[in-house]
Specification:
Strand order of the largest sheet: 2-1-3-4-5
Number of helices: 6
Structural class: alpha/beta
Helix content: 25-40%
Number of strands: 15
Order of helices and strands: EHEHEHEEHEEEEEHEEEEEH
Mean pLDDT: 89
Largest sheet: 5 strands, parallel
Length: 233
Amino acid sequence: MKLKIAVCDDEGSQRDYLAETVLAWAKKNRHMAELLPYTNAKAFLFAYAQEKDFDILLLDVEMPEMSGVELAKKVRCENQAVQIIFITGYYEYFSDGFDVSALHYLIKPVDAKKLWPVLDRAVANLAYRERAVLVSTADGEIKISQADITYVEAQNVYVIVHTVSGDYRTRIALSKFAAQLDETFFKVHRSFVVGLKYMKKITRTEITMANGDTVPISRGMYDAVHAALIKYL
């Protein structure tokens, strides 16, 4: 696979090490990788404004002026496909990753045994974005990437497909629509199927999605949903 990867870290030795490790992984897996290093968030955003075709971002969380999390939020406003990996020395930043659908957090010092499997997952997710469902709406047939579906909601004989860019209404049974989706989706209620990657918080009674919407959980389903989320992560 051809990949465009950015490493953004204000510490030169860490930036060089990550770049070297990523390129070694790409060579081993026969990926054509273009790796671009950046010393800070502003330098990356300047380049990103010119070309937005990055596939994977490795971002240091603790950078001066603009943190990796703040940078990721700016990118996520218009790009849901890019795979974001945070590099940090502190566990307390983990919860911030939910807001930007981060793929993973890696604690410094990072070694290849930890980074390479995460990069493998990033590639799998990028390939997954090619998967789509065809939705029949009042405006005609619309192709929707599975990666953009946050959750699906049944309303009588219709299904509302909630996505990062808007909602689509189609006449189909929830079970039939859900059968088209892959293992990153989970039925949490008779009327709801959620995308595990967009789950931000889970309690015994409901799920809070990344966009703030809440979805109910059927009684007795918490353990199964929680297990599915842990497996996905």
